[in-house]
Specification:
Chain lengths: 114, 111
């Protein structure tokens, strides 16, 4: 068990470009969550998958954001036409149904839009 | 509206100076509260889960407690390596178990 893996760790992109992040959860975890965190704030929920089904999306997730989890394994988060306000740390977490042990987070992808 | 609030935003302690961090919450039907530690540039690291008022959990110099309205993270005789941001979060089970986080308390322990 290598924990939750996120790639890349850092991404610098020009405004207007598209970016894609990947998250590999703990293999036996069926739930996967994406969060966004800005400096000095706690993580904010973006979206959630149970297996391959995307069951909830936050109002924070504009139409420029899309997430997938094909076959209930890894997940990708794509941001189209990036804006400077998208600069943040994007965190992925996974858990088992009814987990009593919290949610395991990855180290995040730091996005900087210039 | 479900909400989690942490105080203080920042706390500076001398090594060995004990203190407490606060997490207050307003959620319907609390089914647990999590504490995490987050180091700069890293994801949150799970510390504790508390389920019911009166429950306490301990790990090294940290002890977490829970009441019906708030949770405390007590730090006894802290060391510089305890410096980090401490986050509390509440799962919302009728919304897929997503976590609602507080804004965190940034703890700095000076030698």
């Amino acid at each position: 068990d290598t924990g939750v893996s996120q790639n890349p760790r850092h991404k610098i992109t020009k405004r207007g470009q598209n970016v894609t992040f990947r998250c590999d959860p703990i293999s036996e975890h069926n739930r996967l969550y994406w969060y966004r965190q800005t400096l000095g704030q706690g993580p904010e929920f973006l979206t959630y998958f149970q297996n391959e089904a995307q069951l909830e999306k936050s109002r924070l997730l504009s139409d420029r954001f899309s997430a997938e989890r094909p076959k209930g394994s890894f997940s990708t988060l794509e941001i189209q036409r990036t804006e400077q306000g998208d600069s943040a740390m994007y965190l992925c977490a996974s858990s088992r149904d009814g987990s009593n042990y919290g949610y395991t987070f990855g180290s995040g992808t730091r996005l900087t839009v210039v | 509206e479900d909400q989690v609030t942490q105080s203080p935003e920042a706390l500076r302690l001398q090594e060995g100076e004990s203190s407490s961090l606060n997490c207050s919450y307003t959620v319907s039907g609390l089914r647990g509260l999590f504490w995490y530690r987050q180091d700069p540039g890293k994801g949150p690291e799970f510390l504790f889960t508390l389920y019911s008022a009166g429950e306490e959990k301990e790990k090294e110099r940290l002890k977490a407690t829970l009441t019906k309205k708030e949770s405390f993270l007590h730090i006894t005789a802290p060391k510089p390596e305890d410096s980090a941001t401490y986050l509390c979060a509440v799962p919302i089970y009728n919304q897929g178990g997503k976590l609602i986080f507080g804004q965190g308390t940034e703890l700095s322990v000076k030698p």
